Amino acid sequence: MSETGQPVLHRLRELIEADPDGFARKVFARLFGASPALRDMFPAHLSHLREAFTQVLDHVLEVLPADDGHDDLIELLAQLGRDHRKYGVTDKHYDQMAQALVTESAALMGTEWTQETAETVAQAMLLTTGVMRGAAQSAPGPATWRARVVQKFIINRERAVVRLAAVDPVPAFHAGQYLETRIPQWPYQWRNLSPAIPPNEAGELEFHVRAVPGGHVSTAIVKETAPGDVWTFAQAHGTLHVDPDRPVLMVAGGSGLAPLRALLLDMAQRADSPATHLFYGARFPGELYDLAVLRELATTNPWLKVTAVVDEAADPWWIDGAPAPAQWGFEIARGKVGDIAARYGDWSDRQVLIAGPADMISSTKLRLRLAGVPSDRMRHDPVHH
Ligand SMILES: Cc1cc2nc3c(=O)[nH]c(=O)nc-3n(C[C@H](O)[C@H](O)[C@H](O)COP(=O)(O)OP(=O)(O)OC[C@H]3O[C@@H](n4cnc5c(N)ncnc54)[C@H](O)[C@@H]3O)c2cc1C
């Protein structure tokens, strides 16, 4: 970045900061004006998209003129480029986006827009869209792939298990990763879901979905998904994995069990799996829906120990007829799963994998840190919000 370029980008950032959403609206209006078909590829409500867009743009205008942070910025933009493949974004759209950004920047800067300013801004915008485009072009595998629902069952009023068989070749991903997922009931909404079984040659997938209150996609899955539905998947993300050289502590809350279960099933196929203790927590005993599978895993894999944890001792009336967890022979503790895990023993030599709702992840991390587990030894996925 030239010395004269720095103040230009700082100034543009300052002007955008006064009304970021207004700027984003104008850029999108210009973009969709140039390519009306592009509008149809995005959700009906664009507020989330605009928010993400303004955050990235702010970050670009902050980091580009700075002395460091460029590598991370390039990686972030590359990831965004790969993410946008699923919307059907093409090279032409990147040109139009760069053009829209420059035009709206010119309008915003008014009399401050000189030949030199124009060159600096154009260079920054072309770099940004160029990195995204380049990463999208060089990303391996197809942008999306499909699988058909073959079975669905309801576990309780808010939770379902959905099994699918791939229709297209499945791009490589690892046990413990999550997939960008779209269902036919909400054709423009992408959500992250974690397969509960490892990827396999037969292309079988299983998901455990909890209907969050007021949640569009999760409620539709629990209430409406039926065999025959075709789901679309895009990229796999996530860094949850097991390093074979170190014993493992896993802490799962609710549907957070899914990625850890996929890892355990994967470990069960290997000869060298390290000692692993899983704490699996739910509000009520009847919500510990997967104990039968865990029992089977623990019986055949002596490296695995499971402790079930519940907030409440008894089920409410609406959990009807769930088998008592004690019948599976696991010890059952009462409390918050992170607290119970942290108090249980010395985990300072362990690698720790945590999965579940955002508040459960942060409280578990805090408890374990206080109990002597270094932060860099704890892994979890990005939290939900
Ligand atoms: C890495 C990752 C992996 C995930 N894996 C799974 C999985 O395997 N199974 C699964 O069921 N879900 C999983 N989720 C959550 C899933 O991606 C959706 O966020 C969730 O299903 C809600 O989507 P929705 O369309 O129903 O809700 P939206 O319509 O997007 O949201 C409606 C309301 O619910 C709130 N909300 C959104 N998400 C949550 C939440 N998780 N908890 C509480 N309130 C929420 C919103 O703030 C909003 O008020 C995962 C999320 C992440 C980030």
Total E-strand runs: 12
Beta-strand proportion? 15-25%
Low-confidence region ranges: none
The overall average pLDDT, rounded, is 93
Question: CATH class of the largest domain, please?
Answer: Mainly Alpha
Write down the overall geometry: elongated
The radius of gyration computed from the alpha-carbon positions, rounded to a whole number of angstroms, is 24 Å
What is the total number of structural domains? 3
Q: Sheet with the most strands?
A: 6 strands, antiparallel
Task: State the order of secondary-structure elements, H for helix, E for strand.
Answer: HHHHHHHEEEEEHEEHEHEEHEHE
Strand order of the largest sheet: 4-3-6-1-2-5
Report the CATH topology name of the largest domain.
Globin-like
Portion in helices? 40-55%
Tally of helical runs: 12
CATH superfamily membership of the largest domain: Globins
Note the gap between the termini.
34 Å
Query: Helix- and strand-based class?
Result: alpha/beta
Give the name of the CATH architecture of the largest domain: Orthogonal Bundle
Instruction: State the oligomer.
Output: single chain
Fold and architecture overview:
There is one protein chain. Helices cover 41% and strands 19% of the residues. The protein has 385 residues and is an alpha/beta fold. It folds into 3 domains: 5-138, Globins (Globin-like, Orthogonal Bundle), CATH 1.10.490.10; 145-237, Elongation Factor Tu (Ef-tu), domain 3; 248-379, Nucleotide-binding domain of ferredoxin-NADP reductase (FNR) module (Rossmann fold, 3-Layer(aba) Sandwich). α2 crosses α4, α6 packs antiparallel against α7 (115-138) and α11 packs parallel to α12 (358-370). The protein is elongated. It has helices spanning 5-18, 20-34, 36-39, 47-63, 70-84, 91-109, 115-138, 216-224, 257-267, 291-300, 337-344, 358-370, and strands at residues 145-156, 159-166, 178-182, 191-193, 204-210, 230-237, 248-253, 276-282, 304-310, 331-334, 351-355, 378-379. The chain starts with a helix and ends in a 6-residue tail after the last strand. α9 (257-267) links the parallel β7 and β8 (276-282). Its EC number is 1.14.12.17. Belongs to the globin family. Residues 142-243 form the FAD-binding FR-type domain. It comes from Gordonia caeni. Its cofactor is heme b; FAD.
